[in-house]
Amino acid sequence: MPSPLQVLEEHFGYTTFRGKQAEVIDSVLSGNDTVVLMPTGGGKSICYQVPAMVLNGLTLVISPLIALMKDQVDALRLNGIEAAFLNSSLSGVEQNQVYQQLENGSLKLLYVSPERLFAGNDFLEFLSRCNVQLIAVDEAHCISQWGHDFRPEYLQLSKARKWLKDATMVALTATADELTRKDILDKLGLSEPNVFVSSFNRANIEYHVQPKQQSFDRLLDFLATKSNDSGIIYTLSRKQTEQLSEKLNAHGFKALPYHAGLAREVRDQHQEAFLKDDVNIVVATIAFGMGIDKSNVRYVVHMNMPKNIEGYYQETGRAGRDGLDSTALLFYTAGDLFQLKQFAMIDDNEAQSRVMLRKLDEMAAYCELTTCRRKYLLNYFGEEAPNECGSCDVCLNGPGEMMDATEEAKMALSAVIRLKEGRGIRYTVLLLTGSDSKDLRDEDTWLPTYGVGKHHSAREWNRMIREFIKLEVLKVSDGLYPVLQLTGMSRAILREGIPVMIPVKPSKPATKKTRKTASNSAADSQLQHPELFERLRTLRKLLATNESVPAFVVFSDAALRDMCEKLPRSRDEFLQVSGVGRNKLERYGTEFLKVIDQYVVTA
């Protein structure tokens, strides 16, 4: 029986495990139920793929998206691992072939969706005869109604344990707050599982938030720095997806839309074109990309505020899975929050509605930060972090100039008191600026605070009040129609005159010159031998096309960069490249070594 490290080197081309991978694998191989919380791109799949190769029986992988299964299976097969999937995309003949492989015990991993698994007891009864030794539940947060992507089918997963009693279970997710984690343990019925929580820090991703005004022009400026890099742009609506992709193509970018309203075959074509690097950009709703394994996505853009931190973290985590520098850019306006709250209420489920509204407020708070964004994200997932990361727009720009807003804070507090803590930000701003809006009640125009702050614009008052909320000078109530309320700090300011300092203006987007590290393209200044990199990328694309797999399945960008740094000239040297195992050496070594040798000789 091979050791886990031997499997890792032989089939995956890596010589060491990352983070907590080795501990997780040891737990699984010891027969312990295991829960893994590991960031997107942190190597969760290794945690069940390596045990699958060590164990004598079958590993059953339960995955929520059938679109992802083929790519994962293709990648495993290229690494010399017998794997298959069962879903509706296979013909009857192809499904029978998989059943035959299961019966003769030649498969190491089988990928199925929960819908397929529980289509009837016949399939579970069949699997009970296939020596299933490990059940891997991918995207385990889908089991929780408190998670951001609840799927009712996942609630049946405990049923699988009744049929496959001898199998160990490992549940894996990248995005789960404390409430969701507890729900995963409860719903899966795991017996005293080992729980492993890796750092959620994706140090290679820069986080940026920009104002939504003129967002398309800002987007064009951003994309101009990305040359031929791959990226995902998320929008809220199908219509916006179509319109934005058309506008980008009109400006010379290769972009395709992706949303649930497109025909299945069109969605598949667009996703395949993106995975195979035939187009650089996919403009999508969140219907695209859950668990997508494309390693060379260099940026993720959100044109609208996401619904929660978990979804945002998972979606931004689709950038830089190969560990190379990448960027997450979000365009935000406070109007996004109100719009999304209209859709957050869940009929006949007040508790879940409250959770969804709270998550929206937490997401809005992230967008309005004047302190480190990375620290906020890590703290959200229960992880301590330094006050400055050096690679988000807030840290890159520095704190900026501060202003004394004590008098403005007193004005705002007085308005809230006069309104008996019964009105929201917009109404309070109308009062402070002395607006003649018909939305103001006549009796409120006689209040002493009416027009007291008219020397500031409505936009500036909106900004200042949101800064006051961050400082807990004011707070906002829960619910669909939140109102401003006083805090303990409010009373201290009014009684004791405690000064209130806020930024003079919002942080500007970090410019290319101020960045700590460059991340403008795969061939940036940190890359050695960029000409060789492009030659290797061309060869990779040709080989991938011939084998009908995405280019990154042949080799990741990180592997190509390592080739450029090490310039291997022999088979043994090529084996030292990160991501090159013996199977890929035999499959691709000769052709890649030829290109490298030609470059070294002529350079």
Write the layout of secondary structure elements.
Elements: H1 4-12, H2 21-29, E1 34-37, H3 46-54, E2 58-62, H4 66-78, E3 83-86, H5 92-104, E4 109-112, H6 114-117, H7 121-127, E5 132-137, H8 157-163, E6 168-173, H9 178-188, E7 194-197, E8 205-211, H10 215-223, E9 230-234, H11 238-250, E10 255-258, H12 264-275, E11 281-284, E12 297-302, H13 309-316, E13 326-332, H14 334-341, H15 350-367, H16 373-380, H17 393-397, E14 402-404, H18 406-418, H19 425-432, H20 458-470, E15 474-476, E16 484-486, H21 488-496, E17 501-503, H22 530-547, H23 551-554, H24 557-566, H25 571-574, H26 582-602
Parallel strand pairs: 1-6, 1-7, 2-4, 2-5, 3-4, 5-6, 8-13, 9-11, 9-12, 10-11, 12-13
Antiparallel strand pairs: 14-17, 15-16
Helix pairs in contact: 2-3, 14-15, 18-19, 19-20, 22-24, 22-26
What's the quick description here?
The chain is α/β, with parallel strands linked by helices. The chain is 44% helix and 13% strand.
Structure description:
The chain is an alpha/beta fold. It has four domains: 4-197, 3-Layer(aba) Sandwich (Rossmann fold), CATH 3.40.50.300; 205-397, 3-Layer(aba) Sandwich (Rossmann fold), CATH 3.40.50; 402-496, Arc Repressor Mutant, subunit A (Orthogonal Bundle); 530-602, DNA polymerase, domain 1, CATH 1.10.150. It is 44% helix and 13% strand. It has 26 helices and 17 strands. The strands form four sheets. A seven-stranded parallel sheet has the order 3-4-2-5-6-1-7, with helices on both faces. The chain has a six-stranded parallel sheet with strand order 8-13-12-9-11-10. Helix 14 runs antiparallel to helix 15 (350-367). The chain is globular, with a radius of gyration of 27 Å.
